[in-house]
Amino acid sequence: MAWSGVERWQASQIADVLPALWRRSSFYARLHGDRSGAIAMRSLSDLATLPFTLKDDLRVAQQAASADAPFGENQAAPLADIVQAISSSGTTGPPLYYALTARDVEVFSDAIANVWFTAGIRRDDVVAHLVGLPMVAGGLPYADGFRRIGATLCWLGGFPTERIVRDMRRLRVTALLATTSFAQYLAERWGDIGRETGIASTLRKVLGGGEPGLGQPDIRARIEHGLGLTHLRETMGLGDVLPSMWGECEVQDGMHFNAQRYVAVELVDPASGQPLPWADGATGELVYTAIVRDATPVVRYRSRDHALVVGTRCACGRTSPRIRCIGRTDDMLIFKGMNVFPTAIRDLVVARFASRVDPVMRIVKEHKDQVRFDDAIALEVEAAQPCDTTELDALAREIEAEVRSQLQVRVAVSVLPPQTLPRGTYKNALVVVRDGAAKGSP
Ligand SMILES: [Zn+2]
Question: How far is the CA of 257 from the centre of ligand 1 (A)?
């Protein structure tokens, strides 16, 4: 179905579910207030007559929790019908909880399986699932999605890393869902583990998710080379809405939206809040509305994820827009009034200095809440090969000049010897605080 047709169908579905939502959720009855009588959902653009839902709104709604309604004011299903609680990671504040009824679990499994299928997972795959916490959005729901396809689920998350990489060889794992950081880590170690266990690699497919970076050609090339494969697909979702909604097809050029039966997605200008058309090259924030969700539904939820629309047509035949995630509002830095995403700095440096620096680098903030910079932003980069101090300094000055001319942002670069920066097995924090405490790490 053409995407315009999908959006018309979604609008008619939302028109049907909104009145019931206002009866079921006291949070949305209050948030939508007097608008609830007047809204006519003729097309998806009519959603713009409703206010956004922010994460802070959900936090406040949750503070009204009680014994009957442990999920607070936005618990839209009776406790007896709720079969599962999901928790946000809680890295940026107290965790938020979301609830699922049996139907919600079905919806999650089906939508997530759809993403995994788009990303190339099939019944005969043996899949390593590395998320160690069943309660988070990437835990049990991801596992359910793999089983839904009929793949062999190997839930290795929670074991020490050494055991995970050996078990992947022993179980003849063919596919892996990993953060970009873990995929890079594995690519560096994979050859050694093969020699040690004497078992040839059967790993053919890597699905990336949880952090941006897999869209970078140089990072992709390193992972492909280290693991000896070419099937590398990015995926993305949001625990507050549905944990996996976007997946890359065989064209491997941006993620398709795969949850259209259950969730509507809008692209909006983050500053004005105005909806933007899905046009090639457009950028904006992703905003989600649940079409089917019993327990903790969201309407016009601002994801704070910023996307670049890579394409609106695809050789694979899917009609949904294709995107890359270019960063999160939470991560945005401001240098003398210029907005810049840390990922934009990293991507530029990796692209222009590919053979001379490692993709692992860090931006250093003075304190956790620093967003504005009046002086150059400190950037620590690793050289790809050993070199002397003069060469390191020269490279640093070159990087500074390139970032300044391309992004209009001043950085103060230190180039460090190879393998100096710490490597995480989950996510490498791109932005850290001066005292060494990583921001946004799990
Ligand atoms: Zn496609």
Answer: 10
CA of 283 to the centre of ligand 1 (A): 19
Cα of 296 vs centre of ligand 1, distance in Å, is: 31
- Going from the Cα of 317 to the center of ligand 1, the distance in angstroms, rounded, reads 6
pLDDT exceeds cutoff 80 at 210: no
pLDDT digits (tens, 9 = 90+) for 350-381: 888 988 998 888 999 888 778 788 889 999 99
- The pairs formed by 229-234 with CB atoms below 8 angstroms and a separation of 24 or more are 229/203, 229/204, 229/205, 231/120, 231/204, 231/205, 231/206, 232/206, 232/208, 233/118, 233/119, 233/120, 233/205, 233/206, 233/207, 233/208, 234/207, 234/208, 234/209, 234/324
| Predicted confidence band of residue 214 (pLDDT cuts 50, 70, 90) | confident
Which DSSP category does 371 fall into?
-
CA of 170 from ligand 1 middle (Å) equals: 33
Question: Cα(251) to centroid of ligand 1, in Å?
Answer: 6
Which DSSP symbol is given to 52?
Answer: P
Q: 221 C-alpha vs ligand 1 centroid, how far in Å?
A: 21
Q: How far is the CA of 1 from the centre of ligand 1 (A)?
A: 14
Residue 126 phi/psi, 5° resolution?
-110, 110
Q: How many CB atoms lie within 10 A of CB 261?
A: 15
CA 389–ligand 1 middle distance (angstroms): 47
Is residue 271 very low, low, confident or very high in pLDDT (cuts 50, 70, 90)?
A: confident
Q: How far is the CA of 394 from the centre of ligand 1 (A)?
A: 43
How many CA atoms lie less than 13 Å away from 220 in the CB half-sphere? 16
CB contact set of 4 (below 8 Å; sequence gap of 6+): none
CA distance 33 to 90: 30
